[in-house]
Amino acid sequence: MPLQATTTSPLFAAELTPHRSMTLRGMRIVIALIIVLGALPGLIFFSLGAWPIIGFMGLDIIAIIWALRVSMNAGKRREQITLWPDRLDITVTDAKGNAVTKRFDPRTLRLQLDRDYDERTTALKLRAGGEETEIGAFLTLDDKSSFGKAFGTALRQARSGRF
Q1: pLDDT at 68 over 60
Q2: What is the pLDDT of residue 7?
Q3: Are residues 156 and 18 in contact, defined by beta-carbon separation less than 8 angstroms?
Q4: Rounded to an integer, what distance in angstroms lies between the CA atom of residue 46 and that of residue 133?
Q5: Residue 73 half-sphere exposure toward CB, CA atoms < 13 A
Q6: How far apart are CA 126 and CA 132, in angstroms?
Q7: Which among 99, 91, 120 has a CA at the least distance from the CA of 14?
Q8: What digits encode the pLDDT tens for the residues 115-124?
Q9: Pairing state of beta strands 12-16 and 131-135?
Q10: In this structure, is the dihedral angle defined by the CA atoms of residues 120, 100, 103 and 129, taken in order, positive or negative?
Q11: What is the DSSP string of 76-140?
């Protein structure tokens, strides 16, 4: 009886991450600048006797720092997509490090590309039965388009059984 060859490497593998141009060091520099630039007018208002303004300016600074931290934490999100001949594994890791893996059968899976009026890819959705899963929601429009083409080709290859 002939042995059947097994695939030890996936047909397609990608790790999707949000684009982040600011590093942790850059964030610290921006926060320091915000504090310094917020303190200067605060001192002027304080010297003019309008000391309550300092509290409102402090709230603004705290809100900006909070928004920067939330944005930096959102950059830790990951989506690991691995396509094997017999299954698709999608592992989503949130900003806290919690990972959830979903498995799909590539033969019943459909990739749906949502497009805008300029024919740019705005969303990548996987449909299997009644379930719909969006992948790469944080990607840019160009990244969604190129990923959709590459992943769609690999998915058709897995469905055809020629790999």
Answers
A1: yes
A2: 54
A3: no
A4: 54
A5: 11
A6: 6
A7: 91
A8: 888 888 889 9
A9: unpaired
A10: negative
A11: T-EEEEEE-SS-EEEEEE-TTS-EEEEEE-TTT-EEEEEE-TT--EEEEEEEETTEEEEE-TTS-
DSSP state of 23: -
Angle, alpha carbons 77-79-84 (nearest 5°): 165
Burial code (b: 16+ CB inside 10 Å, e: under 16) for 112-143 equals: ebeeeeeeebebbebebeeeeeebbeebeeee
Are 75 and 94 in contact, with CB atoms under 8 Å apart?
no
pLDDT of 23 reads 86
Q: Does the pLDDT value for residue 6 go beyond 60?
A: no
pLDDT in tens, 16-25: 988 888 888 9
When the pLDDT of each residue in the chain is averaged and rounded to a whole number, the result is: 87
> In sequence order, what are the residues at sequence separation of 6 or more whose Cβ sits closer than 8 angstroms to the Cβ of residue 75?
17, 18, 20, 95
Classify the C-alpha dihedral 153-158-19-24 as positive or negative: negative
Kindly indicate the confidence band of residue 32, based on its pLDDT and cuts at 50, 70 and 90. very high
For residue 120 the two structure tokens come to 């740019």
